[in-house]
Amino acid sequence: MASMKKLATTIAMVLAAAGAVQAQNPLSAELKRFYEGSKDALTRSAELVPEADYGFKPSPSVRSFGEEVAHAAEYQMVFCGRAKGEAPANPAMGKTSKADLIAALKASSEYCDAIYDSMTDATLPQMVTMNGRSFSKQGALYLNVIHNNETYGTMVPYIRMKGLVPPTSQPRPAGKKQ
Q1: Mind listing the pLDDT tens digit for each residue in 47-80?
Q2: Who contacts 29 (Cβ-Cβ below 8 Å, separation ≥6)?
Q3: CB half-sphere exposure, 19, CA atoms < 13 A
Q4: Whole-angstrom distance, CA of residue 128 vs CA of residue 163
Q5: Nearest C-alpha neighbor of 66 from the set 168, 161, 160, 159
Q6: How far apart are CA 149 and CA 145, in angstroms?
Q7: Angle 26-48/137-161 helices, nearest 10 degrees?
Q8: Measuring CA to CA, which residue among 57, 37, 58, 40 is closest to residue 48?
Q9: Is residue 15 very low, low, confident or very high in pLDDT (cuts 50, 70, 90)?
């Protein structure tokens, strides 16, 4: 009984501390929430489309669906890498299969996850350089969210042309927040 009470107290303290950290860092917590939503839409789209449709192009002058997934993986690395002060390798380079492209997208997301997790409101204003221009880390990471959302917006017509329902248009499971 005493050990259960001790465990309950420990859990309550951990949850209170987590809430306090988020309350102390509302900007970085909000930024991470936006990133999580954009990452989820990209990942679910990549998983939704069948392998046979990864080469689909609605027009000869645009990327195929698979190339859009590769583009998302590459640019997550670009934006998150700049926020960290690095220029990491493109995990999608030369990949064409659905499995390889999803793995590359997930690898880029894992790389970004660590960077978003490390941000605090105090570190967001620190300056970084991207393409010869200065940006705050917050700006670089918001560019990642914006680019993720733009890429998802590009993927949606591909998905609909194949008779599928895009992830953000699917009914949410009961009780799930977005």
Answers
A1: 999 999 999 999 999 999 999 999 999 999 999 9
A2: 22
A3: 6
A4: 42
A5: 159
A6: 6
A7: 30
A8: 40
A9: low
pLDDT bucket at 10, cuts 50 / 70 / 90: low
- Compute the distance between CA of residue 44 and CA of residue 102 in angstroms, rounded to an integer: 10
Residue 57's φ and ψ, nearest 5 degrees, are: -125, 125
Q: How far apart are CA 52 and CA 41, in angstroms?
A: 20
Q: Tokens at residue 104, please?
A: 């590359």
State how far the Cα of 107 lies from the Cα of 169, in Å rounded to an integer. 25
* Helix (H) or strand (E) segment spanning residue 41: helix 26-48
Residue closest to 121 by CA, chosen among 44, 19, 27, 57: 27
Region 94-113: mean pLDDT is 98
Q: What is the pTM of this model?
A: 0.84
Hey, what domains does the chain have and what are their CATH numbers?
A: 25-167 (1.20.120.450)
Tell me, rounded to whole angstroms, the distance of Cα 114 from its chain centroid.
11
